[in-house]
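Dear colleague,

Thank you for sharing your sequence with our group. We've completed the structure prediction you requested, and as agreed, I am returning the results in plain text so they can be pasted directly into your records. Please verify that the sequence below matches your submission; if there's any discrepancy, let me know and we will rerun it promptly.
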Amino acid sequence: MPELIHRIAGYAVAEQDAALPEAVLHHAKRAVIDWFAALLPGSVLPPATLLADALADELDHGGAVIYGSNRRAPVRAAALINATASHTVEFDDIFRDAVYHPGCPVIGAALAAAQARGASGMTLLRAVVVGYEVSTRIGVAVQPSHYRFWHTTGTVGTFGAAAAVGTVLGLGREQMAHAIATAGTFAAALQQAFRSDAMSKPLHAGHAAEAGALAALGAGRGVTGALDVLEGAAGFGAAMSAGADWERATEGLGSRYNITQMTFKNHGCCGHAFASIDAALALQAAHGFGADDIEAIEVATYKAGVDVTGRWQATTPFEGRFSTPFTVASALVHGSVRLNGFTPERLADVRVQALMKRVTMSVSPRCEADFPSRRSAEVTVVLRDGRRFSHYQPTRKGDPDAPLTDADVMAKYRELAEPVIGEDAADHLLVEILALDRQPQVGLRIKRGG
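Please find the predicted structure tokens below.
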């Protein structure tokens, strides 16, 4: 019997009845709130709206709900569309050490299954915890080499979705092992998809949610998977990592909860730009210069940050969100990088466009050595009068060592949710999330008309 996948499955099944610590439940609720904050603005945008059109003949039946349209759907369609929507505006959560956004695939799949099965709110929270714990550890085991070609949210997220849906279904240990095993052969998402302006990146999260749900639904009916898919000679680790460390996949499993160590985004863009934005704003606050005073900005960070966000053209929302030069310049001109930072007017702002051309990027040996366990940047601003100011940003606001408070998370939720569904509906949904552990059946549907 392959030991690794059964150890992971054993943890997942044990969690179905375990007494979760209050802190873990609290962080699970924070994760759900933050997921809705990212989901709702994405639910009314492509590609989620286009997917709903493409899958029209699969909708308007089933027990799950598609946000944005409030249409009914079966588990897989809802998981696909909602998870895609939640990864669209780049405000979703991060598990730093795995270079991974767990909320999109895990909560997208778990919620669809819980709604379809009439599960309790506590079951949903357990599923979220299990999905996060299983997938973040598999993610850590294959990093940092996995991130050279693969988008972790679309690969590792598949395992998280399978474990989460398996928890909602109440799978036994052997069934859960097969669900996770089958998820391993479904896992795929290439980084090339977000090296250009395309809709594929959010689809990675959607595919992971749908494929993980399919793996769990199938396992519940007897579909088997290769139980050595993680560590086998032609398995996930061998194919998609250089020297996967599988001990890390079970380290602390069931006793140390990674869901309590999440990063919640404070800027509406790719997380690789965050430390640079934070450093630039810290310099501006300390020295009081304006954007027009700047002659040059020198950004040094880790290689993945340069590779993914080293873009000096920003004419579309995608390009802007994946451009450190643009987001740093926009932050210095406008004071923040929020959802409105990528409107046509902001993208065309002549002050921002001029300033971003004065940004240079390079790899910092110190920042590279710390990646992925620390996301840092060194930023130097050179003023027109010759003065130079430098700042080393060792982490990002929102990371576990500089976390957003509960009040920050609530404010972010309201900022992003209310323009889409209205203040009353946003309030009603928030009250439901906070009371999930006392709800006999998951609702979390949008109450229109507020």
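Summary note from our side: The chain has a mean pLDDT of 96.

Kind regards,
the structure core
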